[in-house]
């Protein structure tokens, strides 16, 4: 059918309660008009509408890159009519039918070629009941599906998706997938949800500390045609705090200087103390980055940021150097005041102590000031390191009472090298100084002298830590001392505690000399000389008989020969002799020109050198086994 100056469009659309039913196969085209600006007016009609109450119909014509053109049809009975003005071109027609704000049906046809001055046939359009899967919300629940506010590491939980179908028809046969930290956690096939229905689905998970992202995706294979495909995916990022439990256990008071614990009942005004909290992390993970606060009488006294306590550790936190003021007080120490740490138990983060500071009482403070040394009965101080053994000296202590009250009837003790050396009962007035001394005979070595005041703790003092004073020094040996009385000073005596002597022992000897038939036996004696002192073995005028080629074991030991203890090396000569009527014969036991055994003996080590070193010697006419030793009496 021809038109005059443009294209008129008429089409019929059927909307039914069940999706999939269509209108007539083809809609007639009616004349339109060509506007002066080149627009073509399209007349639109939607007929055979469903019995379902449709109160709004929107139509949109789309022809990219042109701006879409949209309008609302007027509904009369079961027919909706209206018009759009478009430029000539290829247009897609989209129809949406609403009940209230709910999109019940939708359809699309095209592209339709709209040409100015020509008639255009538009096929019939099929409207479908709508489906819209919406991933609505994610939450974490316990295994009974109860939503959790706090989740701890190791807890068995469900990662829950709440989803719904906001369309007007059931959506069935689609696939759901769940992802945790980018990895697929699980999926479900053949999912179904009715029109307007809301459901939930969960994934089991054992909570792991850290930050995680869970993502759910609906209709991952795009089986369901939906009115909105952009709302099928949802994600949630959350953090699982590890199991931590900060426990404030006890508040106590200690001296700031010594860190010794103080009974609050004894606390007096003016004392400088620390207010201490003993606490711990009873959890299995470190607790870091939180704030500690201390309140005194409801007023913030001190605080600390970025506190950390390792898992399982006990800890001390304190307000330092508080000067106590007289009267009742209440200290409250709080952990994690900003509630940064998620804990197993949030009720045990505070500890308190109520105490009363007393009015200062008269004080005593015994102070051991200085230990020094003088010669016995003298007053001039001397360097104790200049003493020698045997010096008579006085070990002195100056001390004072730095308090405001006299101290009477207390004990003082002196120790030398940890051993009690003297004691006394003393008294001293307030704000005064005194001295005490002990006469002592110096002994060689390093010594420590310690004076101790109020050893039985009779006096209640302001400061109990300053009652001791020590002095360490070294006493030299007396260079003129002769401990063993051998005529040699200890400083040069190799054996200052005893007199050294040398003893020679003959163990075994043999003869190789053949004197003929009548003198087959030798009559052997020995001469032994130690530093010029001559010894005869076995004794003067006696001998041992020894046949040629045989041996004798005399096991004879000489008397001990006193030698100079300040000399390490001494001369020892051993000779073997044969008694003869005319003249005694010297037998060679060393195979040298002297025939004698000439030795240099080390008094300190007991070793010797010279013609022999091991106690066995062989000559051309005999051999000898012997020993030399040092004897200290």
Characterization of the model:
The protein has 633 residues and is mainly β. It is 0% helix and 54% strand. It has a seven-stranded antiparallel beta sheet with strand order 3-6-5-4-7-8-11, with no helix packed on it. Strand 35 (521-530) and strand 36 form a beta hairpin. The protein is elongated, with a radius of gyration of 59 Å. The chain starts with 12 loop residues before the first strand and ends with a strand. Residues 1-35 have low confidence and may be disordered.
| Widest beta sheet: strand line-up | 3-6-5-4-7-8-11
Large-scale geometry: elongated
Helix content: under 10%
Instruction: List low-confidence stretches.
Output: 1-35
Quick summary of this structure?
The chain has 633 residues and is mainly β. The protein is built from no helices and 46 strands.
Task: Lay out the secondary structure.
Elements: E1 13-14, E2 26-27, E3 40-46, E4 56-62, E5 69-76, E6 79-86, E7 89-99, E8 102-114, E9 122-123, E10 125-126, E11 128-129, E12 133-141, E13 156-165, E14 171-180, E15 183-193, E16 198-206, E17 210-218, E18 233-240, E19 246-255, E20 261-262, E21 272-281, E22 287-296, E23 299-309, E24 314-323, E25 327-335, E26 350-357, E27 366-375, E28 392-401, E29 407-416, E30 419-428, E31 432-441, E32 445-453, E33 468-475, E34 500-511, E35 521-530, E36 533-537, E37 544-547, E38 551-552, E39 556-557, E40 561-562, E41 569-578, E42 585-587, E43 597-602, E44 608-610, E45 616-618, E46 622-632
Parallel strand pairs: 1-10
Antiparallel strand pairs: 2-9, 3-6, 4-5, 4-7, 5-6, 7-8, 8-11, 12-13, 13-16, 14-15, 14-17, 17-18, 19-20, 19-21, 21-24, 22-23, 22-25, 25-26, 27-28, 28-31, 29-30, 29-32, 32-33, 34-38, 34-39, 34-40, 34-46, 35-36, 35-37, 35-41, 41-42, 41-43, 43-44, 45-46
């Amino acid at each position: 059918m021809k038109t005059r100056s443009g294209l008129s469009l008429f089409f019929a659309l059927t909307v039914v309660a069940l999706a999939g039913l269509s209108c007539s196969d083809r809609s007639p085209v009616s004349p339109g008009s060509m506007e002066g600006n080149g627009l073509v007016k399209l007349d639109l009609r939607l007929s055979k509408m469903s019995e379902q109450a449709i109160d709004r119909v929107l139509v949109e014509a789309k022809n990219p890159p042109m701006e879409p053109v949209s309008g609302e049809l007027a509904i009369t009975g079961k027919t909706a009519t209206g018009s759009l003005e478009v430029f000539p071109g290829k247009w897609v027609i989209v129809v949406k039918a609403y009940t209230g704000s709910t999109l019940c049906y939708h359809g699309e046809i095209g592209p339709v070629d709209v040409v100015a001055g020509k008639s255009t046939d538009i096929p019939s359009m099929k409207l479908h009941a709508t489906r819209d899967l919406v991933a609505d919300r994610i939450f974490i629940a316990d295994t009974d599906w109860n939503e959790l506010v706090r989740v701890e590491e190791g807890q068995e939980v469900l990662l829950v998706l709440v989803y719904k179908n906001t369309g007007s028809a059931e959506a069935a046969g689609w696939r759901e997938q769940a992802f945790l930290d980018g990895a697929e956690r699980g999926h479900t096939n053949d999912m179904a949800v009715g029109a307007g229905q809301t459901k939930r689905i969960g994934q089991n998970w054992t909570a792991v500390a850290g930050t995680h992202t869970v993502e759910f995706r609906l209709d991952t294979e795009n089986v369901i045609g939906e009115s909105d495909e952009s709302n099928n995916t949802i994600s949630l990022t959350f953090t699982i705090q590890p199991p931590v439990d900060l426990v404030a256990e006890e508040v106590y008071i200690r001296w700031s200087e010594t860190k010794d614990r103080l009974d609050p009942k004894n606390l007096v005004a003016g004392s400088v103390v620390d207010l201490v909290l003993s606490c711990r992390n009873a959890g299995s993970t470190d607790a870091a980055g939180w704030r500690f606060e201390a309140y005194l009488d409801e007023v913030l006294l001190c605080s600390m940021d970025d506190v950390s306590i390792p898992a399982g550790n006990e800890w001390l936190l304190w307000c330092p150097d508080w000067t106590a003021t007289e009267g009742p007080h209440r200290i409250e120490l709080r952990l994690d005041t900003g509630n940064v740490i998620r804990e197993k138990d949030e009720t045990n983060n505070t500890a308190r102590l109520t105490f009363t500071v007393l009015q200062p009482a008269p004080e005593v403070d015994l102070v051991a000031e200085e230990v020094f040394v003088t010669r016995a009965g003298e007053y001039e101080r001397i360097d104790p390191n200049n003493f020698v053994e045997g010096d008579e000296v006085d070990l002195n202590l100056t001390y004072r009472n730095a308090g405001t009250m006299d101290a009477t009837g207390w004990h003082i003790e002196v120790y030398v090298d940890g051993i009690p050396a003297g004691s006394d009962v003393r008294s001293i007035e307030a704000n005064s100084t005194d001295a005490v001394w002990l006469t002592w005979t110096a002994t060689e070595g390093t010594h420590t002298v310690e004076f101790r005041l109020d050893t039985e703790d009779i006096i209640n003092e302001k400061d109990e830590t300053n009652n001791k004073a020590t002095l360490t020094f070294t006493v030299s040996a007396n260079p003129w001392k002769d401990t063993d009385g051998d005529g040699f000073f200890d400083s040069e005596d190799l054996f200052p505690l005893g007199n050294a002597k040398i003893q020679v022992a003959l163990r075994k000897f043999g003869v190789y000399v053949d004197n003929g038939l009548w003198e087959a036996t030798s009559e052997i004696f020995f001469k032994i000389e130690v530093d010029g002192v001559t010894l005869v073995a076995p004794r003067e005028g006696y001998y041992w008989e020894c046949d040629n080629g045989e041996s004798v074991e005399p096991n004879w030991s000489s008397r001990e020969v006193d030698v100079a203890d300040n000399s390490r090396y001494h001369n020892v000569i051993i000779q073997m002799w044969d008694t003869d009527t005319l003249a005694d014969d010297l037998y060679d036991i060393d195979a040298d020109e002297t025939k004698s055994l000439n030795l240099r003996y080390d008094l300190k080590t007991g070793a010797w050198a010279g013609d022999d070193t091991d106690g066995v010697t062989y000559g051309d006419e005999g051999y000898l086994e012997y020993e030399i030793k040092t004897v200290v009496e």
